[in-house]
Fold this sequence. Notes:
Layout: H1 2-9, H2 15-32, H3 48-75, H4 79-93, E1 98-100, E2 105-107, H5 112-119, H6 121-138, H7 147-171, H8 176-203, H9 209-245, H10 247-252
Antiparallel strand pairs: 1-2
Amino acid sequence: MERHTAHGARFRAKPGKAFAVLLLTAHCSLFAASDAHAMHISEGILPVGWVLFWFAVAGPFIAYGLYRLKGRSAADLSFKPLVGLMAAVVFIISCMPVPVITAGTCSHPCGTGMSGVLLGPAISVLVASVALLIQALFLSHGGVTTLGANIVSMGIVGSYTGYIVFRTLRGLRVTIGVAAFVAGLLADWATYLMTSIELAEGIRGNAPFLPLFWKLLVAFVPTQLPIGILEGAMTAGMLVLLHKKRPDLLVRLCIIKSGETCA
């Protein structure tokens, strides 16, 4: 009975119930996932110097995200439940491993392009940080020492790329669906561009940077090319659906103006 009515009730469910459903979905999907590959940048790969550097880069963005969350929550009491829902979505999306045979690791969607567009990049960084921390502590996805690097690539680069691309295209009067698609696509690809940079710098030793960087980037292409397209489609689908079903929500999030059409 619940399965039959789930899609019809999703937009009417209370935030707490919807959050619980999303977490349950994530829990089930994790049991179905393979343990053969590590996600994100795995524990112990980066030298101590780079570990500290990436934490230093991520720290101010996390602090600013907390500041923005406090301010927006004070102005809108319903904003925190929305952030919780988006955190669950990012958590689930980034727990979908796709093995990269040529690199001995995994690719995965990120979801931060979507959260960057909907919540703004500062709070999206915070959302990604929470998702990555839970994955590192309880699911062995990524690592605690590499958390800063993963926040930089997925949280900061992904969120800000998605937000800037979406706002730029909307300023050029591109439709919401197309702007969201390109934002999700480029946010995903930018994340893996940054991941390749982090890995190349961390593991190259005395070897030249560029040959290893290109080798890593090319290794991700067969999986990340279609995953990026999929993530663009998911981001566009979410924005178009919200515009049709809950345009008031997009108005409150300052994504569209009141009475604006989808074109």
